[in-house]
Amino acid sequence: MRIDQRALDQLREVKITRNYTRYAEGSVLVEFGHTKVLCTASIENSVPRFLKGQGQGWVTAEYGMLPRSTHTRSDREAARGKQSGRTQEIQRLIGRSLRAMVDLKKLGENTITIDCDVIQADGGTRTASITGAAVALIDAMNVLLEKKKIKHDPLKGLVAAVSVGIFKDEALLDLCYEEDSNCQTDLNVVMTQAGEFIEVQGTAEEKPFTRTQCNEMLELAEKGIQELIKKQQDALGW
Amino acid sequence: MRIDQRALDQLREVKITRNYTRYAEGSVLVEFGHTKVLCTASIENSVPRFLKGQGQGWVTAEYGMLPRSTHTRSDREAARGKQSGRTQEIQRLIGRSLRAMVDLKKLGENTITIDCDVIQADGGTRTASITGAAVALIDAMNVLLEKKKIKHDPLKGLVAAVSVGIFKDEALLDLCYEEDSNCQTDLNVVMTQAGEFIEVQGTAEEKPFTRTQCNEMLELAEKGIQELIKKQQDALGW
Amino acid sequence: MRIDQRALDQLREVKITRNYTRYAEGSVLVEFGHTKVLCTASIENSVPRFLKGQGQGWVTAEYGMLPRSTHTRSDREAARGKQSGRTQEIQRLIGRSLRAMVDLKKLGENTITIDCDVIQADGGTRTASITGAAVALIDAMNVLLEKKKIKHDPLKGLVAAVSVGIFKDEALLDLCYEEDSNCQTDLNVVMTQAGEFIEVQGTAEEKPFTRTQCNEMLELAEKGIQELIKKQQDALGW
Amino acid sequence: MRIDQRALDQLREVKITRNYTRYAEGSVLVEFGHTKVLCTASIENSVPRFLKGQGQGWVTAEYGMLPRSTHTRSDREAARGKQSGRTQEIQRLIGRSLRAMVDLKKLGENTITIDCDVIQADGGTRTASITGAAVALIDAMNVLLEKKKIKHDPLKGLVAAVSVGIFKDEALLDLCYEEDSNCQTDLNVVMTQAGEFIEVQGTAEEKPFTRTQCNEMLELAEKGIQELIKKQQDALGW
Amino acid sequence: MRIDQRALDQLREVKITRNYTRYAEGSVLVEFGHTKVLCTASIENSVPRFLKGQGQGWVTAEYGMLPRSTHTRSDREAARGKQSGRTQEIQRLIGRSLRAMVDLKKLGENTITIDCDVIQADGGTRTASITGAAVALIDAMNVLLEKKKIKHDPLKGLVAAVSVGIFKDEALLDLCYEEDSNCQTDLNVVMTQAGEFIEVQGTAEEKPFTRTQCNEMLELAEKGIQELIKKQQDALGW
Amino acid sequence: MRIDQRALDQLREVKITRNYTRYAEGSVLVEFGHTKVLCTASIENSVPRFLKGQGQGWVTAEYGMLPRSTHTRSDREAARGKQSGRTQEIQRLIGRSLRAMVDLKKLGENTITIDCDVIQADGGTRTASITGAAVALIDAMNVLLEKKKIKHDPLKGLVAAVSVGIFKDEALLDLCYEEDSNCQTDLNVVMTQAGEFIEVQGTAEEKPFTRTQCNEMLELAEKGIQELIKKQQDALGW
Fold first, then answer.
1. For E14-236, CATH number?
2. Which of B88, B96, B208 has its CB closest to that of C198?
């Protein structure tokens, strides 16, 4: 039995609220149980220097945790003067995952920046971020289409993410903080709507994992991500 | 007539929601119209080095805007590697204002850090922050009292803040962003429950203001702050 | 009786020495008693990026204290790698105050940077800086006029600043360090030659101040600033 | 046929040279074809603050590329004033991988820092780093044993790493730079001597990968890592 | 004939004014012609960590130029967030030179920090700094003696510095800015009262210099430094 | 007798290995005994902003020590976020010395950056760096000639460097670390093939040096540098 009464292969309650704030072209509050992340998508009519003049766009992400989103307060990264290695790792992961959803040529010379700010953290903030950001990104691309800034929809398909892990030698889906900090192995998986992999990042925290455990975790992740994509589709009214 | 149909001396709709997030000892979402700030209070059982061994506590504040809380996206301060002068100015103002509410001796050797994070910005973020942070601070001090970490309530009284300004030669209460960016003069006022001043910060943006205008603005501020203190009291169930 | 035998409404001895150093377009040493600030004005024939192509100029200020200008040595900001919040607050205040003196359109696409470096600090360094910087700025604008770089004098009028405070419940003009660090309330006021306000920044240090005390302080400030403007005029030979 | 005539499941020529420099407690030059990384292990008789007094040790890693280890020169991170996100990601990966080899309790209150500095980069620098660093770490732990600083060997077993990828829909072992920058998917795998997984990090660069491809890549990695562990054992004279 | 009518072996007018500011334990304004440097010495009753518990003191120096001390304004190092390589080189040179004057054992566990801030720069700021700082340091050590914080005078003897150079193939003493920026070779020399060398730093700017030229420059420097030491002695009333 | 059995005027064994790594236009491993420095030269077809449009090139250098190149590990400068004063001093010295070898006009609008990375440090890393970098620079200039990017050889002649010092009152050539850290005086000398001086940097570490000692050291340096230039010529096959 899990700490929060879930079955081993059960997601936490997932909510995806669009238009959560007023100004961003896409603004989504995503909740995986107590984990809450605000994902906003901002359009800028230009591209980073390394892409200038190539007739394509860019999608990038930034990530941050409010200092007291967590059980004990962490330092504010802006005050400390730099982003931690963990923060950079996560925002690079989110950016790569989102770019896999988009035909950058069709995006034209536009940049969409996704900000994922964690309001409350109970494990799985990076996977919730990707899942919510995918929806915010679609909203922003639709703004470009509606305003006739681009002609063709750059969307290649939905992407969602979930964490899986081995806890007391059993595979669990969608770890909460308590499970995450005590599990043997933690695997974050990003997949497309079509059931293919974008990212697989597994780390043995306490003891190494076997090929069999790897397979069990990947299967759980596939199941969870199909459910998450259904939630995204519902939120989008598809 | 004001841009949003308010009377000259009318506040925007003000909401103060306690226990907005789960982990902080005080957690308040404060809304002044479309301006929304999350104020969390975190207790740490120690004091900064300059206060060590003096048998007193400390209250400090940090402030940040989510990159897309505003009409157009601003750089993330954590990514840029430093807090702007404006941010530092505001967090110093919030800290000073909150310390005026507290008997630091009675706080014992505890530090309470208030994080004010702007979720959505439509003018008046610093005054909303102070007004909401005051409530979060009280919640955190009550946690210390309930857990018997301190014996006597350190609270000296409520503090609230509002902006006033001169727009087309008339004094206005509680400026929204549109008004704020077009006004001649902008005055932020912090006052106590007892009707005395903690901070008065007036800046002529476009043309200097007269002594008469200064008086008009201070009177509007007094009126507005009394209403805000009533809102704080309602939220606290006093 | 004041610590230095002054009357409550009496300024310290004020000296304004022009052409204090050789290379700057304006160079003023301003002394308020033992407080000594070197204010230099430097002309650059360009404007910051955000003003490019708008046919107007810019005036900005930087502020610093020599490490041992104070009673005990403070860290050198250049060595520590960043300017303190206090420094940034002060230089933003000086910049705004000086821009109120100038018609930026008439300044053409020129930037004037005022450096206020505190040689010796005995309270009131920000108000002395503004008072001295105003003169250095005029000298620099006259260089532009003489060299025919601009056609019309951009000067709108003089600006000066003074601190006032409440000490043992009495209002005092132009606080020295000893008074400043023990006063209940500290108010910095910037005014124009015409007797109007540019900035009013009041902070209750120890206990809140009443509306009556606010009025007393503003009146003292008005008196003091008129005297300072007279000193500026004398220094300029007007 | 591969760019460098290797079979799909063939490693590049691997060399592991111990005692490459004089002063470090462990010093290994590891070569995967043209990729050359110098891995040094340094012992310090203390632990980071978060471990003080817990009677255990710590193993950590830092990573850097010489500016011209690559085909075109990159900026020196020390001159730019910060480590890139990529660098931080890699050094965190190396550190986690090496800690999986060590019983930190048996290490006592000692810290071993592994520096992985890339002399020449032709793809796979992170996997070469882990493979070489494992040997340098063992040499350093043996110094502690020989000097009787610790009583029991903290080594739990060898760890090695390799990259695999999908290039033109075929799975390849140990990608060189040319392959790495053109492959569809890149997977870095870290395994123990016992054939279990420590880290699996797969990224779809160009198009998503299927579960079948994932399996193919994991099998190639298992094969390659067994060969690398054999090379480590040879180098160690086991 | 030199630009300012001096003979080849003639110093500029040198003035050393003690007690230039009020608070520092030593405060000297040193002038070499138009070059003006304020040198203050501050005592702290502790030593840097690397000297703790060794029963000796420390002398260190910091150097800065006011942004408009020069012909055109330079960036403020505090605003840019770091000290230039040139600044660090100079402050390391000043620190080493001053430590050569002092028996650090006799200084006890005290640190004396010398701040050299350039008010006006016309070449030779580092040599003027050393020459003035030596006097400020002596004044500070005398404060320690008078207050009975130390028993024995730590002074080993005076130290002074001068620049020499080759300009149009002739050796010149004490270069002004104009000469300095056009000379072939620039040599800074620091010597003791006893006529021995502390530092010799020669740089061929435009063309290499011969052994003969090196000798000519060293002789000029010896002459100049003897005159500077005489100036220091006069200032000290010896 | 010296610590390593050398005569007072004897260099350590010097080796200069060209083409040490594959990608750089010049790549030299220079060894002075146990001191080993990798010097790579990288060509970029542009110049720094301050030289744009002047029809000339630029030569610059960067320097770094691998963290465990030394007897005990030093912090990684990239991790600490800044280069030390010592590092900056050395890279400025290397850059100036190399520019003395080159006719920058003939180099065209190209920049050659020399990276000197210390693999193993046993004293004299800056002089070894200059000696090796000179060869790497020539190799890079020859690449420009061969590829017909420039028409005329920019080389003015070879440059090499050596350290000399006074140890127990005797002058020594080419100090190893042990000698360097115990000597009274340390002098680094850079000379041209023609026997003229580029840089002379002498520092009294423990006690001042006399004019006679200065002369002895300069003579030893001249002898050593002639031998080093011979080694460079051999390496270049001249």
1. 3.30.230.70
2. B208
